[in-house]
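Contributing new complexes? Match this layout with zinc ion.
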Amino acid sequence: MPTIAPHGLHHVTAIASAPHRNVDFYTRVLGLRLIKQTVNFDAPDTWHLYYGDEQGNPSSILTFFPWPDVPPGRQGSGMTTSTAFSVPPESLGWWHRRLQALAVDVYAPHLRDAEEVVTLHDHDGMVIDLVASDGDTRSGWDGVGDIPAEHAIRGLHSVTLTERLLDPTAAMLTQLLGMNSSGESPSAARFAMADGAAGALVDVSTNARQRGLQAGGTVHHIAFRAPDLETMTGWQRELQGAGVAVTEIKDRRYFKSIYFREPGGVLFEIATDAPGFAVDEPLLELGRYLRLPPWLEPNRQQIAASLPSLGLPAD
Ligand code: ZN
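Output block (do not edit by hand):
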């Protein structure tokens, strides 16, 4: 019996083009908090921008690698094709009107397998769903003036993986990662982590006609929550025992991580809840300045000079 049991989604990481447009869209338009300005630790001349709720709690986090010259990607199989956030049911119409008024590429609220959804695209074509969710007690971030707290995005709701075949992916999710199959609908099979709490759902769709191409506007990987390092180390051993090619434990500064691919090709990460985003700056100042891990700090000047502007007002 598997003992791996992620507590929900930890974060979703995607690829964007112009960083200043990325910051503008996810903070001013969608009202997420920019919780960290840092770089891609594996390619320090590239931004890594984190958005989330006030504290950057796991399951609220969306992150981007913005590469100004990245070509557009293509949605298809072998990738995560939708990132869904939860909003209160009575807020869906408000969001639709707001996004229309801001000239965002957005569709009217529609019913998808008993859930009401507003689908939108950012300027890179990244697909975001806002899902009406009853009973999501997370508070989100209410720091954006023209978004009333009652309408704020609460956090991640689910992701949709698009696969050529359902069964191999379903087998990994249920037999190895401890998720429960919670139903099949015309559009997707749904899997729930833990007790299916907020931000703990994975949908698997098989309706793609071609393989996806990972580039601008597509998801790079999704991460699941491990409560602590000891638990994650046990899960790593269990994945190895099951023949999964899992990486060593990587220090991502705000969490520790392991990575592996599911059978359809989507990159999975497991990330620890701790230490979180206040490890290198006070909560009130999250996301305001460039933060580097200790091993990159000696190169700060050179790194800062190579990064494109985020277009934020200077403090
Ligand atoms: Zn990640």
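Reviewers usually confirm one structural detail per submission. For this one: The first helix runs from residue 19 to 29.
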